[in-house]
Amino acid sequence: MNNIIKHDIETEEDIANLVHTFYGKVRKDELLAPVFNAVIKDNWDHHLQIMCNFWSTILLYTRKYLSDPMQKHLPLPLEKVHFDKWLMLFEQTVSELFTRKTATEATKRANSIARLMKSMKEIPL
Fold it and tell me: How far apart are the first and last CA of the chain?
């Protein structure tokens, strides 16, 4: 039985836990790993810090991330199945680790980001 007491996403440590746990799953996923590894290569530590800054900005309003993620992701060879898997793993990770308002907001934001990226890549929703 899982004895972890879940709480909301409240701190930078919570963000780091979310990002590192989620991307740990992505790096092992047979569909997503090849896409991410082809671009990130051996720079995962750097990428994870960028992702921590991104989600910290989105969920904790820290303004640590000031770039445009869309321009970096649009050239990637992504299809609907990639977005669906990414969202499934993200929502699963949030659900495993956290609960309450900000955790719910994280999944809403992830869905919005995926919807926007799919529309920019002209992928059917």
Answer: 37
Q: Kindly indicate the confidence band of residue 3, based on its pLDDT and cuts at 50, 70 and 90.
A: low
Decide: helix, strand or coil at residue 45.
helix
Taken as a whole, the chain contains a residue count of 125
How is residue 1 annotated by DSSP? -
pLDDT tens figures, 38-81: 999 999 999 999 999 999 999 999 999 999 888 888 888 899 99
Contact in structure between 62 and 9 (CB atoms under 8 Å): no
Q: Are 56 and 9 in contact (CB under 8 A)?
A: no
- Using the Cα atoms of residue 78, residue 70, residue 41 and residue 14 in order, give the sign of their dihedral: negative
Q: How far is CA 97 from the centre of its chain?
A: 14
Question: What is the average per-residue pLDDT within 33-37?
Answer: 95
Q: Which residues contact 97 (CB under 8 A, 6 or more apart)?
A: 4, 6, 14, 17, 18, 21, 103
Cβ-contact 90, 110 below 8 angstroms: yes
